[in-house]
């Protein structure tokens, strides 16, 4: 029996080695470090800080190189020129969604984040139109954000200037905006259903940002046969999607196609319009996944940026003082901030941009894939090959930003103090796959941060020199370290 086991193991290894050689020799891929059979380049990568490993390899192999995460090749784009050439200049060819086994395991291939082909194009187009206030009732999205900003201020007042961890409160605000858009109504911050949603989204972001998930994506077999935090993530996704399904059923019972109240109503109306189309992409299943995508992309990402932003503003009181002076001059202390104010507030605009640039929230974006066999910079990349654009290499480019590793709003100001745009500002990625919620996120960050600084001073509970702004996780997302602060009413 022992001999049989040995023979089976040997045969399996030979088969895997054969498959690896076939994959490794496919096409004329960009250069890169020699991969080992089966495990690829995993041992040569720092899975806790992949951006640092990519910087190291780019010095040896240039701006376009190949790494093997397991047995499959991944083309890395490093630096603004390579990222722009691929995602913008040749956007259609690089518009596929790359292999993401954890998402595929959760059956999330129908929504707007992980789908491909016509499904992705139809759902994305519909989502963009709806988020731009198409058929969204009487209240604009800006009004919904302003309403939530007021509720956020009231919650912060309840802290009475005592030290607090802002994580939960800052997560509630953007989540409630999505709830208002998707479900029509926002939740009270003490609502049990709402608290359950918040816990699951927060937990999933932490799990996604762990090295374990990147290992699982490199070796998908782990998802089926090994214990680990991925099982909790999949359980949370299932629970969230069941919750969305119940909400959809409620909407179906009270739907008025002539008076859509929210995103779900708009989607159900679209389903009714397309019911005779046998190739229709608008189904209950795709609606569930799309709503989950909107929450996943529009809740934790924005709340993490807000939290990291407050940490940076607390670390740099001179920046906060300039922002508050600008708020006083343009808005005053009593009127609610609005998006029209942004054009008159170049410093605040620069601060929001610098927060996003500095924290580098999603260092590698989500994986792309080429939609056909292509020739790129004299390399041949086969259809379906995964492509990872390093957003870090763009946002922290030393030629564009004079001191990229330092938090400095002047990166987005000209010599006269006017706001200065930069083509290198790509926190939402770029091209065809740019974040569908970019406009909403920009609005939330400006209105939430401006409203907070209009009403409160930020007081640290430790010495400024002891405030650490180094991210504690740099996998899928860069998460700020734990901190407390005091919101002192002005």
Count of separate DSSP helical elements:
18
Q: Give average pLDDT, whole number.
A: 90
Strand order of the largest sheet: 1-2-7-4-3
What structural class results from the helix and strand content?
alpha+beta
Shape, per Cα inertia axes: globular
SSE series: HHEEHEHHHHHHHHHHHHHEEEEHHEEEE
Poorly predicted runs of 5 or more residues: 3-8, 10-25
Distance between the termini: 78 Å
Helical content (DSSP H or I, runs of 4+) = 40-55%
* Binned strand content: 5-15%
User: Major beta sheet, specifics?
Assistant: 5 strands, mixed
Cofactor: heme
Signal peptide: 1-25
Main location: endoplasmic reticulum
Binding site for heme: 435
Model description:
- The chain is of the alpha+beta class and 490 residues long.
- It has 18 helices and 11 strands.
- It has helices at 2-24, 50-61, 80-89, 101-105, 117-131, 141-157, 167-183, 192-208, 211-218, 221-225, 229-254, 263-273, 284-298, 300-315, 317-330, 346-359, 392-395, 438-455, and strands spanning 64-69, 72-78, 96-97, 368-369, 374-376, 379-381, 386-390, 456-460, 473-474, 478-479, 485-489.
- The strands form 4 sheets. It has a 5-stranded mixed β-sheet.
- Mean pLDDT is 90; it is low at 3-8 and 10-25.
- Heme binds at residue 435.
- Its EC number is 1.14.14.1.
Give a quick rundown of the structure.
The chain is of the alpha+beta class and 490 residues long. The chain is 50% helix and 9% strand. It is built from 18 helices and 11 strands.
